[in-house]
Amino acid sequence: MDMKRSARSSSDHLSPPPPPSPVVAVAINGKNKSKDVAFWALEKFIPGGFSDLKLIYVRPPITYIIIPMGKAISILAISAEAVSAYRKEVDGNTNELLCPYKQMFESRKVRVEILVLESHDPVAAIAEQIAGTGVTKLVIGTEADPRVRKGIFDTPKKWGWVRHCIGMSHPGFFTKKIGMSSMIATAVPRFCTVYVVSKGKLASVRPSDSESSGTIRFERMERDSSTSGSPDSPSPRVPSSNNHEIANMDCEQWFLRTILLFLIKLLTCLRANLTFEMEKLRAELKHVQEMYDMTQTETADAFQKLTELNQRRYEESEKLMELKEKEEEAKDTASKEKQRYEETMKEVEKVKELMMKEALRRRKAEIKA
Question: Are 238 and 166 in contact, with CB atoms under 8 Å apart?
């Protein structure tokens, strides 16, 4: 009896502490299919006694503002009041988008904590949030990210050196199109179980390390107990080739996981560089557009001034023509007046001669008389 008590006390002393309470999170993108993901999470975890869930939504950060004319203006080029007003508008749209999900959770008597993240990389944002909040169960959808599906995995020759360096013979891995759900399941910390839901049903599960190790330990304990229960039965011997295959599979999975993480980091860096270059190009384009607008304005002003000068020149030319016509008319009038004057003077000379002749004739007549 004392031995049983001592064994029980020692077992109680050696028993591990109780695990922390699990935390469930649902990551959505706001589309119609996200409602199926949230509904599946409620149906899955509410019967298990979960009453608190987290709702994760990732949106791009506000770096530009779309003006009514359709142009994108950097927030660095506008006032803080305009940026604040635009951010309030975006927050209002986000709240309106997430309101149906909040009502869905509250109708099931579930407390929901809404986490709105801002990032150009949803995969990294979700992974960091999971790592920071200690979420142990994550539910996501299966919609692929078109930014990831194109380009980088469609060129197997480009990644041949990676396969050569790590000694892997899986060319199909580099030609597969990786979806957003696969990238999230790879990037999320290993202490979290990831449930992938498609069309309202569970499509796949990426178990956590604790669940995987617990399953292995459970199988080993069953095998050991069955072996100890029948000592006379010969224990099955596993061929060494199977052990090598299992080791190779574990090694290949580790390599695949490492490469996926490397590609995720590479994509993140490329996306950050691309965002920086796009912002730089947009700033240069904005400067060129402003210079073009200024040039157009100056050209329009110069054209207006040239038009006014031509109009003034035309008016001055018309006035000059009128003056020349008046001058010709004055010359003609003066010539006519001069001619009249000369004719008048000739008439006067004739009258004088007649008067002188008449005076001489009268004088002669008086002398004769």
Answer: no
- Listing DSSP states for 125-141 in one string gives HHHHHHHHHT--EEEEE
Which phi-psi region, left, alpha or beta, contains residue 178 (left: φ > 0; alpha: ψ -120 to 50)? Answer: beta
CA 172, 196, 210, 238 torsion-angle sign: negative
Q: Which structure tokens are listed for 250?
A: 């574990």
CB 38 within 8 A of CB 26: yes
Q: Is 279:74 a contact under the CB 8 Å cutoff?
A: yes
Do 136 and 193 contact (CB within 8 A), yes or no?
Answer: yes
Q: pLDDT of 218-269, one tens digit each?
A: 333 333 444 444 434 333 333 334 444 444 555 566 667 778 887 887 888 7
Where would I find the beta strands (DSSP E) of the chain? 24-28, 52-59, 64-66, 72-74, 111-118, 137-141, 193-198, 201-206
Q: Which domains does the chain have, with CATH numbers?
A: 21-144+179-214 (3.40.50.620)
